[in-house]
Amino acid sequence: MTYDVIVIGGGSAGLMASIAASMDGAKVLLVDKGDKLGRKLGISGGGRCNVTNNKDMDELIKHIPGNGRFLYSALTHFSNKDIIDFFENLGIRLKEEDNGRMFPVSDKAKTVVDALIGQVRRQGVEIRTNSPVKMVLYKDGSVQGVRLQSGETMNSKAVIIASGGCSVPHTGSTGDGYAWAEAGGHTITQLFPTEVPLTSKEAFIRSRELQGLSLRDVTLSVWNAKGKSIISHRGDMPFESLTCISA
């Protein structure tokens, strides 16, 4: 089978890529190794899905870890304001909360997931779940398609790798795409997490007495061994599990 575009990964990036690629009638295939699309998206934002932030671009760039300036070009073509318009055009009403965070009025990530999948289907994208990719096929420096672990091959001159990083393995985000991208000649820089939980062995954490509690608009400070404040961050703090505080 031959397609104009094959998208690997049915998360938020893969769903958006499928919508963009099929917008003008291209024949698009979306493949995902899981049994359903948008799994990680469905648990994002504490289950409410923080779709974007409404602050000005310079303010957004300032809070991106590392050298966020490289995103200026991408955000110029499709900005946070465009994201807001996109979802509202899909019929999702959004609301702004503290620090510019934008959530669906429903307070349910499922609202966002269902809207994206619905748009993908309306635009005629072929969806294949439970179809793990074994490799991306290359020849003479050009992409040729993908081969599934089942041995089935799909041909395309354009493959979008949107399989996610290594952040949430139980949702399928296990970093498969890095090897496929590297095989195609891309450089993979050293990987490191940018949003991680804070872990503690304190008795009041291990006792679970705070599990399920969510503090709103608090300031968390990190202090070094000499009693000097290294950094402070203001926002919400949910206590999520036995030994994990997420800030």
Name the strands of the widest sheet in spatial order.
1-10-9-8
Mean pLDDT comes to 89
Shape: globular
| CATH architecture level-2 label of the largest domain | 3-Layer(bba) Sandwich
CATH fourth-tier homologous superfamily of the largest domain? FAD/NAD(P)-binding domain
Low-confidence regions: 242-247
Alpha-beta content class: alpha/beta
Number of domains: 2
The first-to-last residue Cα distance is: 46 Å
Radius of gyration computed on alpha carbons:
20 Å
Quick description:
With 247 residues, the chain is of the alpha/beta class.
Task: Kindly describe this structure.
This protein has helices at 12-21, 39-42, 44-47, 57-62, 72-77, 80-89, 109-122, 177-183, 203-206; strands spanning 2-3, 5-8, 28-31, 52-53, 94-96, 101-104, 126-128, 133-139, 142-148, 153-156, 159-161, 198-199, 214-223, 229-241, 244-245. The chain has 247 residues and is α/β, with parallel strands linked by helices. The chain has two domains: 2-183, 3-Layer(bba) Sandwich (FAD/NAD(P)-binding domain); 198-245, no CATH class. Strands 1-10-9-8 form a four-stranded mixed beta sheet, with helices on one face. A four-stranded parallel beta sheet has the order 7-3-2-11. A hairpin with a 4-residue loop joins strand 5 and strand 6 (101-104). The longest helix has 14 residues, at 109-122. Mean pLDDT is 89; it is low at 242-247.
